Description:
Low-confidence stretches: 19-26
Helix content: 40-55%
Strand content: 5-15%
Shape: globular
Number of strands: 5
Radius of gyration: 21 Å
Number of helices: 9
Oligomer: single chain
Structural class: alpha/beta
Mean pLDDT: 91
Distance between the termini: 82 Å
Strand order of the largest sheet: 2-1-3-4-5
Order of helices and strands: HHEHHEHEHHEHEH
Amino acid sequence: MKISSFSKCLIAFNFLLLSITAVNAQTVQWDSTYRPGKYVELVKKFKDDPKSKRDIVFLGNSITAGTDWAKLLDLPQAKNRGISGDITFGVLDRLQDVIDGKPSKVFILIGINDISRNIPDSIILRNYKQMIARIRKGSKKTQIYFNTLLPVNSAFEKFKNHYGKDDHILYLNDEIRKFSAKNITVVDIYPVFTDKDKHLRAELTKDGLHLIPAGYEVWSAFLKKSGYLN
């Protein structure tokens, strides 16, 4: 059976289209080298800040950076090490400064910006485990508190790169809940901030991602009630 020239062209076009689609599907772009604009400035500030073995360090991104932990918790030794926009690779790059201070506790909440930047879940999880391993090796007496990720709320339509990726949040939270080793405590804050539709509670956020003061008060009450600060 002879194939017409038109049919040959159509077949060739379909093959080309399928090839392009396959290539695009395999090349989701992500960048481990991204650092927020104030990253270098804040890392220097953190390094210059006096350190004590009594310190309680809160390490993370803008969600951590959004409050004064010392005032919120009435704990002068609480240190804010949040950098807005940071990702797990950024935390790893500045983690040694935290380790060198040998704090009594470190609370880690990081990963939502990785998700927004299409960093694979497996890479985020690997970075989590590297954080834990490095702290346990370099500061053996530091108690590590690893937070589950907060939900987001797409109804606010402010951070579209963070929306529609709830499956990634749920997967990583399930993996975080499996963390089990000496000096490691999982702080499951996800359900504390989740409404009946599994979104970030609207009354605790200003934009579907970040918390307002009422949100931090809920967080503070949870930490105190759960005994994590003792």
